[in-house]
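Q: What does the assembly look like in three dimensions?
Context provided by user:
Components: two
Sequences:
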Amino acid sequence: MTAASTSPQQMAGDIIDLTPRERMIKKAKSHRGLQFGGAVVLTMTLVALLAPVIAPYSPFEQDLAKRLISPVWAEGGSWEHIFGTDQLGRDYLSRLIYGARVSMGVGFGAALLGCVLGVTIGLVAGYLGGRADRAASFLLTCQLALPSLLLAMALVFFVGASITTLIVVLGCLHWSYYMVVTRTMTRQIRELEYVFAARSIGSTDRQILFYEILPNLSNQIIVVFSLEMAVVIIHEAALSFLGVGVQPPTASWGLMIAEGKEAMYFKPYLVAIPGAALFLLVLAVNLLGDGIRDITAPEGRN
Amino acid sequence: MSALLEVEDLSVTLKLAEGDLTAVSDISLSVEKGETLGIVGESGSGKSISSLAVMDLLPKGTVRKASKMRFGETDLLSVTPSQMAALRGNRIAMIFQEPMTSLNPVYTIGRQMTELLMLHKHVSRAEARDRAVELLEKVGITAARSRLSQYPHQLSGGLRQRVMIAMMLMCEPDLIIADEPTTALDVTIQAQILTLLRSLQREMNMAMIIITHDLGVVARVSDKVAVMYAGQIVETGKVDEVFGKPLHPYTQGLLESIPIPGEISPGEELGSIPGLVPSLKTNFRGCRFANRCSQAFENCHTTLVSLNETAPGRQSRCLLTPEAAAQAFRSGNGPKDAAPTGYGADVDISGAPVLSARNAECVFRIKPNMFAQPKQLRAVDGISLDLHRGEVVAVVGESGCGKSTLARMLLGLRNPSSGSITLNGENISGLSNVEKSRRVQSIFQDPYSSLNPRRTIGEIIRRPLQLHGSGTAAEQQEMVETIMERVGIPRRLYHNYPNQLSGGQRQRVAIARALILKPEIVVCDEPTSALDVSVQAQILNLLLELREQMQLTYLLITHDMAVVEHIATRVVVMYLGRVVEIADARTLFGSPQHPYTKALLGSVLTPEPDADVPDIELGTSYPNPIDPPSGCTFHPRCPVATDLCKRSAPELRHIGRTETACHNVAAEVIAAE
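A: Here is the predicted structure of the complete assembly.
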């Protein structure tokens, strides 16, 4: 072909294409949301893990002489207690740092458990159809018919409150979105020709589910995960607020808001600080989720 | 006489995030009353966008520019949106491609038809209904009055398209724009709809613009034709001139890439246009076709080419002189007679078959609701078929005839309800997936859904090797690269995802995946129907070449008779799950026996401008397979059906070199003896 040097074919021919991994890294480098979300989540995780090292005081140590000290930026605050102290004189920053352990542990743990449950049920129901599908749909209807917060309260009450219980109970109550999304997508993909193609090159059902179908669900699953994680953290806060979640004196962001509510009108920082931490975490998880979706999705033509 | 619609220098620019994309640049069109203009081009050539621009229906974020756009006395460039709305549907009507989605499913036919008339012409409901009935009868719908209360889903695709046409005629428009009006329909229905459009247009003296990728349709229906490429008109003129003596190398390439019986012998390499349509974001400095043109010279890449008038009413956008350009057309392989060639002669069909079906049946049980009796749908009804090594067996028939179900059974993806399918003498249901896939592979219809969008090209082609555990990673990589080269996928695409590839490239990937295990048999389910004409030719050439190199046996499932005639050695015609005729390709195309085969062959539209749309005498539409007609299932549509046909179903009988299932043909033979 006697194409001039500017022809699109030739130009395209000169580009040596990147492997999927290289392309992902390249995209990640220019994705602000992903970088911000990732940085926040990473920092919070590190803070939670290193809580004993970082926290300036013990989160349980009470000092009634130093009750309700305002944070450093407010009137009467000092650098001694950057975020002030609560009603019992405990250092609020230390409680926030220890609280991150519970909130993030419960958030990731329960959202992950719900994800595994929901995606498994959804995949099986959507792929097999028929009886399996009807059984899964019945299970879903039951789950949706029960008021989940009430159920969680009852369960935690019977089993006894601990962080593990909280994760298991919340996880078992938050699989429905995953299941609905996975089931619908699987039903659509099941009918596409690449599934038939996979079968005709000798793939088994399990290989089709994991190699062909699951990667195509990752976008949706990541989005649902980031949303559900936020919901789970807020649920944990609600349960702790109601007194059936994390038990005092263990710190959790939800519990801190609950305990702070009594003095909310006089010392708004008691609610605002853990509230802001919660907001930041949820925002970061959402940004991270969107970012992961963006960098893993195959881009369109040019 | 001045033209009804006149468009000059129309450009449409799409504002995208990455920059402007000029989808249509400087096209000029004119249509007179009673005239049909055909716009042909491959996908992405801007043919639909230009019609939407005329209707002012462009999506948001597009900019339309033109030096002149006039419809009748109205200047389309200065009309207000409400004036334009009054024109649309009233004086300019549009028929869309997809009859399944262009009617609103929640309203009755009657309501949708009368609404338009009541809106534009302010007539009473009763008058509007009378007009609707009259028009439905005119477009050949029986029991028209009762149809008014039906919903779109109660009608077949062909009927819906008729309703759509009747609806467009309600206000007696002056101009009809039909965008791929028959692409979604079966061939036999296509011929009927085209005949209808043509006769209605003549009767009502309307102007018509027909937009299509199908050269056959344009050749048969239109008076004038405009060939579009990459947003420009490259050639226009009277249809017989353009098709008989194309001046632009692109038009020539398109025409050469269609297998026309008589022009090219079966099995021979088709002309094809190499390369891809350039991205419209490119800043063109030369002829847009230059990089694919076989006759391009240096100037083509550096000079912007304008549309030159070569004769009155005839324009071409090419630097070559008309004489030089015309000479190149079919210079290599001038008209030949389709008389005996060696193709397919080397196939030995007396030996043991490699793949064979014996009385294979596939029955689906359909239960419309919880309390209803389940009904049986015989998708495949007792088919026996043998495939011998090296053969290319084509299974043809309209949609719903069970050909795809048959293909899935032969691939071992679906077990027959009764009967057996054997592969080299072994029952296929006894073989494991891996063993089956080593011998039989498939190429699917739609390259846009047959490749997993989340896997790179390399991964997709390599997957069969991984599943079968053949070779080390390095060996697999090497095999992938070898096969990629063989099917013509550039190596640089190894790490790309399917959505970065064109339709033709994707189909090549699908072929590479099917062939990497070196199977004996390849089942091709409509391998080219989702592709553009020039790409179709590339894929057909590739399939033929690979057959030779790898000694493959093909089972080709298709509705495209031109493709069948070009590459098949034996043809099986199916109707409602049964075989109505089997013969070797030459016999079948030379002397078809069964009336259905004759109708199918008759409805093939080759681009012969002097020929009219063939008359297909297939009265009613395709029957519902849940409730098949008695006796010979073809009798309600058969022009020669007798009482016997209604009572008893004919068996397949050997008649000369064909096997056919028809009482009449059998009776003729007996009479002759």
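Follow-up: Chain A has one domain: 30-51+89-296.
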